[in-house]
Design goal:
The chain has about 150 residues and is of the alpha+beta class. It is built from three helices and five strands, in the order αβββαββα. It has a five-stranded antiparallel beta sheet, covered by helices on one side. A hairpin with a 3-residue loop joins strand 1 and strand 2. The longest helix is centred in the middle third of the chain and has 22 residues. The protein starts with 8 loop residues before the first helix and ends in a 17-residue tail after the last helix. The relative contact order is 0.15.
């Protein structure tokens, strides 16, 4: 979705131009309840700065989002006693708002939420080729976590 900062709903929430049920805020991120929740406690975490996708986030925003997501999950578990939880983020065309946002919501057996698959998904043919293609793009990522910065080939 094409979205400019001036027209962005989430930027306006971050600037307090539009009201939301805010549950956390610091200088980098803001978290609020989803106005159309999948389950009670469904919350969103967004960076205050306008980004579309995960790969555009700066390191501070990414770290703040992940650190707060841990605290939020702990709170949701204590308050709602769910059987699990879901964390998700849609990117590119599938980002329906046009501003990076992470969903976190409690889950229960039979709550109706689920993944759907197109035809042909789940087949194992070609996994090795896909793995090799991804690995070739991740050149320079020694040990992946804790290694030197990844240099993604363009």
């Amino acid at each position: 979705m094409e979205c400019t900062e001036e027209r962005c709903l989430f930027c306006k929430i971050g600037k307090k131009e539009i009201s939301a049920e805010i549950i956390y805020e610091d200088e980098i991120i803001i978290s609020f309840l989803d106005s159309d929740p999948i389950n009670e406690g469904h919350l969103l975490i967004i960076p205050k700065k306008h980004y579309l996708d995960l790969d555009e986030l700066d390191e501070d925003a990414a770290v703040h989002i992940m650190k707060f997501s841990i605290k939020a999950i702990r709170a949701l578990k204590k308050i709602f006693n769910p059987e699990g939880y879901t964390i998700m983020q849609n990117g590119g065309y599938f980002n329906d708002i046009g501003h990076y946002h992470m969903h976190i919501f409690p889950r229960y057996k039979g709550d109706g939420f689920g993944w759907t698959y197109g035809e042909g998904n789940g087949e194992n043919e070609g996994l090795k080729n896909i793995k090799n293609a991804i690995l070739s793009e991740l050149i320079g990522c020694a040990n992946y976590i804790g290694g030197p910065s990844c240099q993604i080939q363009s």
